[in-house]
Design brief:
The chain is built from 21 helices and no strands. It has 644 residues and is mostly helical. The chain is elongated. Residues 282-632 form the Exocyst complex subunit Exo70 C-terminal domain. One of its GO terms (molecular function) is phosphatidylinositol-4,5-bisphosphate binding.
């Protein structure tokens, strides 16, 4: 029953809900119907507006077209007026430019250049507006003015450049050098003195070069503007010729005033060596001045005058200096081609050294294609100097070995050839760095080993020659003294020089033994015979008694000893051992053998004579006398000194 009641309540609730929904749906249909009516009304109203606007637009179109045409007309009128003003301005500018052009560039070059630029602008203006009746006339007139201006600019460029292309005075160039590299004052012959190569290398450390200003800074911009105008006008050839003529003469005259002269091989051959050596020393300074100062300054001038015209700039610089480069190198080429001689080796090395020094900077100055020929000329001279120097090495070695000097060294002292060769070798080692570069010029080798090889060959050639000269002596003892003196001088000089590093300790030790061998040979040849006088061999005698020895024999032995020793003293005191240490050691070596033998002989046999008549006739010398006389050996005394 309760269940039935709940069902009745639920059914009643559902009926109420459905009724409510139906009412709402009816309301919504009514609203939608009213909205559709409103929409239709709005559509109708908007449609009527569209018709009205279309009609209005149709009515106004003629007015709009008329207004647009009027606006276009006004714009065209404005453009025409502006163009007319521009034409009038161009005519006025033409008139102004013409006045300046006809006046010439002498008074105000800058204004003249501006007028030329203005004329070019005017030509471009009328060239783009050739439909104007006046265009052709204006263009023709302006072009004529420009041609006239070009001729005037060419004259002005020539005159301005010529005014500032005077030769540079030598003192001005020398003042630009670092103080340490300035040439020494000229001698009475007007020539400078060459510096020691070791000093030269020190001078090159941290040096600063200050190239001179060849053209004032306020003038180069004007020259640049002139060159640029002419270049743009197609007158490159005229610019090139004017620049080359003025600057080439300036460069060459500057070098000639400095002292550079053109020489040929025959000129070199005719010169005395002292004059030629001085000229070479000066030339080395000239090369440094030319490349590091004069050509560097000229490079700056061409760079500033032809800025923005790179290839033209390089060509003008190369041509402006080509004659000067040829003049400068001609001297070096004449030396390199002239007859070789040993004394020229060091000046050849000096010349090679300066060429290697300036070559990097020269290559930088002439790095363009236009400078290729000059770079090749410098490179060729450098290599030619290296070849000549290397060939001179060989010549010197052969000259040393074949030296046939007849000058006899009567006292057995150091031969002039020995001191000459040793000084030559010592001087070579002052050029070590240069020599190493020179060796690498032709092949990749160890330069230290090559220098050592050359030094050994020269030393061997000297020894071979000395050996031949030693055979001129009739006295074999003097032969040994001569060889001992000379080999000792060589060894001592090597030990005190940089040559020792190259030749090595083994070489020094071997040759010290050679010196000792000659000293031993001298003692054997010279003193063996006299020592025999102090020896008496008697059968059955123990060598301490006088048994079996006659007084006559003893007298004869003393007499023979006296004669031989006095003869040796007289002769060998004229011989010379110039090295005091060697001289004393040789005397000591003789005394150590002779004095004990004499003392022993005198002690043993002296009493046999002293008891007879005139003992002083036979025993003339005491051991002290012998020691004193030995101290006079090898002093190089003359006969006059001995008598006195």
């Amino acid at each position: 029953m309760e269940t039935n009641k709940r069902n009745e309540k639920t059914t009643g609730f559902n009926e109420i809900t459905m009724e409510t929904l139906r009412d709402r749906a009816v309301t919504m249909r009514d609203c939608l119907a009213r909205s559709q009516i409103i929409t239709d009304s709005m559509t109708s109203i908007l449609g009527s507006f569209d018709l009205r606007l279309s009609a209005l637009e149709t009515a106004m179109r003629p007015t709009q077209v008329k207004t647009h045409s009027m606006r276009k007309a006004h714009e065209n009128i404005d453009k025409t007026l502006k163009f007319a003003d521009a034409i009038l301005i161009q005519f006025e500018l033409t008139k102004q430019a013409e006045a300046v052009i006809l006046k010439g560039p002498q008074e105000d070059l800058q204004s003249y250049l501006e007028a030329v630029g203005q004329l070019k602008t005017i030509v471009r203006f009328f060239s783009t507006n050739k439909n104007l009746k006046t265009s052709i006339g204006v263009i023709t007139h302006a072009t004529t003015l420009l041609q006239k201006a070009s001729m005037m600019l060419e004259d002005e460029f020539r005159q301005l450049l010529s005014s500032y292309s005077k030769p540079v005075e030598p003192d001005r160039l020398l003042d630009c050098l670092p103080a340490s590299l300035r040439p020494t004052p000229p001698t009475a012959h007007g020539e400078g003195v060459r510096k020691n190569p070791a000093d030269h290398h020190k001078d090159l450390e941290n040096v600063v070069y200050r190239p001179p200003t060849l053209i004032p800074p306020q003038v180069t911009p004007l020259l640049h503007d002139l060159a640029q105008q002419m270049h743009q006008a197609g007158h490159q050839q005229q610019v090139f010729m004017i620049y080359r003529e003025a600057r080439s003469a300036c460069m060459e005259s500057s070098l000639r005033k400095l002292g550079v002269e053109k020489l040929h091989k025959d000129d070199v051959q005719r010169m005395q060596w002292e004059v030629l050596e001085a000229k070479i020393g000066n030339w080395i300074h000239f090369v440094r001045i030319a490349v590091k100062l004069l050509f560097a300054a000229e490079r700056k001038v061409s760079d500033e005058v032809f800025e923005g015209m790179k290839s033209f700039m390089d060509q003008c610089f190369a041509e402006a200096t080509s004659t000067s480069v040829s003049l400068l190198l001609s001297f070096g080429e004449a030396i390199a081609k002239s007859k070789r001689s040993p004394e020229k080796l060091f000046v050849l090395l000096d010349m090679y050294e300066i060429m290697k020094e300036v070559q990097p900077e020269f290559n930088t100055l002439y790095e363009s294609i236009s400078g290729a020929e000059m770079r090749e000329s410098v490179s060729a001279l450098t290599k030619r100097l290296a070849e000549t120097a290397q060939e001179t090495f060989v010549d010197f070695e052969e000259a040393v070995e074949k030296d046939a000097t007849k000058t006899a060294v009567l006292d057995g002292t150091v031969h002039p050839l020995t001191s000459y060769v040793i000084n030559y070798v010592k001087f070579l080692f002052d050029y070590q760095s240069t020599l190493k570069l020179l060796f690498l010029e032709f092949e990749q080798i160890d330069p230290d080993a090559q220098l050592a090889k050359i030094t050994r060959r020269i030393m061997q050639a000297l020894q071979n020659n000395l050996d031949g000269k030693s055979k001129q002596y009739k006295d074999q003892a003097l032969t040994q003294i001569f060889m001992m003196n000379n080999i000792h001088y060589i060894v001592r000089s090597v030990r005190r020089s940089e040559a020792k590093e190259m030749l090595g300790d083994d070489w020094v030790q071997i040759h010290r033994r050679v010196v000792q061998q000659h000293a031993n040979q001298y003692k054997r040849i010279c003193w063996s015979k006299i020592l025999q006088c102090l020896t008496v061999q008697v059968a059955g005698n123990d060598g301490t008694s006088t048994a079996g020895v006659s007084r006559a024999t003893v007298k004869e032995r003393f007499k023979t000893f006296n004669n031989q020793f006095e003869e040796l003293h007289q002769r060998q005191s004229q011989w010379s051992v110039p090295d005091s240490e060697l001289r004393e050691s040789l005397r000591l070596a003789v005394a150590e053998v002779l004095l004990p033998a004499y003392r022993s002989f005198k002690k043993r046999f002296g009493p046999m004579i002293e008891g007879g008549k005139n003992p002083s006739k036979y025993i003339k010398l005491t051991p002290e006398d012998i020691e004193r006389m030995l101290a006079e050996f090898f002093e190089g005394k003359t006969l006059h000194d001995q008598k006195r």
